[in-house]
Amino acid sequence: MDIKVLGTAAAEGWPALFCTCEACRRAKQKGGRNIRRRTAYAINDDTLVDFGQDIFWQTLQFGVDLTTVGHLLVTHSHVDHLNTVDLQWRAPGFSRVPQELAVYGNQAVLNRLDTELEKDLSDYGIRPVLVQSGETFQAGNLTVTALAAQHMGNEEEALNFIIRDNQSELLIANDTGWWEEATWSRLQQHCLNAAFVESTTGLHNPEQYTNHLGCRSTVHVLNRLRAMGAVHDNTDAWAIHFSHNGGALHEHLCEFFAPHGINVAYDGLTISV
Q1: 152-199 residue pLDDT tens
Q2: What is the pLDDT of residues 30-67, one digit of tens each?
Q3: Residue 246 CB coordination number (10 Å)
Q4: What are phi and psi of 24, to 5 degrees?
């Protein structure tokens, strides 16, 4: 399985558009891996996880051909993970679209597609697929298990994903706090080759456990996954989904996570598992 990280930031991006904080100022100054687009992933050549406002530049910058993408997994309905504006350009008269796009998401995701796209979804070549936590389904050649994230309380059931092919298993876990026991129990059944676990609040609030994680709570999540056997010595473990409000530039995040055997994701990262 080939994974390309298209973005690693929280909702504001980094540097945030209108922000004068020190973390944004220094990111502009240093550039490189401190420039972070909104979090999204490309898997193989036919699947995306999340589709935010930066998708146009992400696909150009990192060589993603959207004409080959037939599957879009959406973690939740927030606009930095579901940008319906750019889905409009699939309509006849704007684009010649070569294939159907199956969009897998919770009810809030499907509701946004219905209300924000002006035509019938079939006019955009979009096939909506309702997904609930605990379900396992096929997305092309990938087998996907949806996990209940801890992100939006009773407002919406945000999702994390375990994604499998015939060789490896991948965990996508951004936009979540500390999971409920049902999710931990589900994870205990897996042996992960790679894991992306969020760390939105960084070093500013390192022990955040509700709705998002901080640096120390990210370590605690991965340590529990190790203790239950889901993460092992050969698992490629990555922290991802960082906010400028967390205050830690890429080098500071690397310094913190390195002793814990955790890598720090950056835009354009490509791994194969």
Answers
A1: 999 999 999 999 999 999 999 999 999 999 999 999 999 999 999 999
A2: 999 999 999 999 999 999 999 999 999 999 999 999 99
A3: 25
A4: -70, -40
Contacts of 196 (CB under 8 A, 6+ apart): 5, 41, 170, 171, 172, 173, 174, 238, 239, 240, 265
Q: Please enumerate in sequence order all residues whose Cβ is within 8 A of that of 199, keeping only pairs 6 or more positions apart, or say none.
A: 213, 214, 215, 217, 218, 239, 240, 241, 242, 246, 253
**DSSP character at residue 36:** B
Indicate which CATH number applies to the domain containing 99. 3.60.15.10
- Its sign, for the CA torsion 77, 83, 84, 90, is negative
d(CA 195, CA 240): 10
Residue type, 60: L
**Contact (CB, 8 A) for 156 and 131:** no
pTM above 0.70, yes or no: yes
Structural domains counted in the chain? 1
Range of the domain at 56: 2-272
Computed over every residue of the chain, the mean pLDDT equals 97
How does pLDDT run across 184-196, given as a tens digit for each residue?
999 999 999 999 9
Task: Compute the distance between CA of residue 137 and CA of residue 164 in angstroms, rounded to an integer.
Answer: 11
| Nearest partner of 253 among 198, 215, 212, 209, judged by Cα | 215
Measured between alpha carbons, how far is residue 252 from residues 208, 242, 244 in Å? 18, 12, 13
Specify burial of residue 187 (Cβ count, 10 A radius: 0-12, 13-18, 19+): buried
Reading the block at residue 260, the tokens are 């814990």
Q: How far apart are CA 197 and CA 241, in angstroms?
A: 8
